[in-house]
Every structure is written in structure tokens, then in C-alpha cells.
Amino acid sequence: MLFVYCGVVLKTAVLFSGGKDSSLALHYALQSSQVKCLVTLISENPESFMFHTPNIKLAEKQAEAAGLPIILQKTKGEKEKELLDLKNALQKAKSRFKIEAVFTGALASNYQASRIGKICAELKLECINPLWQKSQLAVLGELGEKKIEAIIIGVFAKGLENFLGKRIDEKFIQEIKPLSEKLGINPAGEGGEMESFVLNAPFFKKRLRIEKNHVFEDRQGGRVLVIDKISLV
């Protein structure tokens, strides 16, 4: 499906975190619009209500791998105030690249989707959420179908410790499904239980390889695979 306005394919930006959902949204955007840039918010607050934070600075490297321009916007990550930074970033994308719409990887969070939608409306941009309300297990399955290689880089719920660093593939789905039912968690991490990072995708011109990393444990027991060095190969 092409997103067309007045006979012209829409020029779009993609809100990009470097994780599985925004990468899958980028896949859809590239197939249905003219993707002019990625937009990434870099939050100082690791517990941002709106934005993915683990290894977020590496989104620039992922943009390089995809051969796409990227707008990086810093934010302190303060609740609600961070929305002003998002609006500024999208305004930059509209001014620089003449975008008409924004793709997001919003899957189930009404908090995120409603606020992004409101900002887009204020900027007279269409908001497109291709993953919205899809089955979380189906979304995990799509990663394999579309050859998007993603790994788990953050686990923040008890019982998920052994998933850190694992690739999201069919084996992962088989393991996470019964565990999510047992623990009452979202299998795709939509409740903040997990975070991911994409190393390769069909739209990458080169894949990413982790050269050096370490594990950081926060005060609440969450564990993050911090990528210290990464290269394009």
C-alpha cells in the first residue's frame, strides 16, 4: 500500500529508537512512502515515559547503516515536558525535509500514541502507526519473516534475566510465550519489560557488529547490555 496525497507518494519521517518496533515501522514506511529522515530523541532520563533509552546514541550508527539522514534531539526526559522536544524535532524534520507524515512503532501504548498523534495534528502532519494493536507475538514473528535481526538489550522484569543478549527468533518466541503467560508480562515488552536493538535488516547497506559490551544493573534489578563499541561490516 502506498500513502499518496494528490497523486504524490507521501514524504515521511520515522520516529526511530533503534529497537524492533521502530525498525519494523521503518520497513513499512520504506515500502509505502518516501522516507526522508529518521527522528531520534536522546533522553537524559533512563526512565523516560516516552522514549527508548538503552544504547539510544547508536541510532546514528543504524541510520548510517540504512543510508538515511537522522535528526537527533536531546531531551531531559521529564514527563510531559519531553513532548516539547519531540515537537521541536518533528518541526525540524518538516522544515528541512518537507515531510507530510510521521511513522511510529507504537504497538499498544495509548500514552505514547495519543501524545504523538496530538503533536502531529498540531504540526499538520499525518501520524501513521502500522503496528498499532497487532498481536505482540505476531509482531515478534514478523521480525523473522522480514529478516530483521534484533537482540534483547534490556530486561526489567523478574524471570527475564536469561533473555539478555538473545536474538529475537522462533526459539525466542517459543520461550517467551509460556513465560509471558506465567508471569503476566507482555511478550513484546510493551509494558517496559524488555528493550531491543536491531543489528541488521533488509534496508541496511551494512550490518552492525558488536565489538565490545558490558552489563549494567540498575537499582531496581534491571539489566542492560551496554554496547561500548560497534562497527559496520
Characterization of this structure:
With 233 residues, the chain is an alpha/beta fold. The chain has 2 domains: 125 residues, HUPs (Rossmann fold); 97 residues, putative n-type atp pyrophosphatase, domain 2 (Alpha-Beta Complex). It contains 6 helices and 11 strands. The strands form 3 sheets. It has a 5-stranded parallel sheet with strand order 5-4-3-6-7, with helices on both faces. It has a 4-stranded antiparallel sheet with strand order 9-8-11-10. It has a two-stranded antiparallel sheet with strand order 1-2. α1 links the parallel β3 and β4. The longest helix has 16 residues. The radius of gyration is 17 Å and the shape is globular. It starts with a strand and ends with a strand.
How would you sum up this structure in a few lines?
With 233 residues, the protein is of the alpha/beta class.
In helices, the fraction of residues equals: 25-40%
CATH superfamily name of the largest domain? HUPs
How many strands in all? 11
Strand order, largest beta sheet:
5-4-3-6-7
* Oligomeric organization of the protein chains: single chain
Order of helices and strands: EEEHEHEHEHEHEHEEE
CATH topology value of the largest domain: Rossmann fold
Q: Count of DSSP helices?
A: 6
**Count of folded domains:** 2
- Give the CATH level 1 class of the largest domain: Alpha Beta
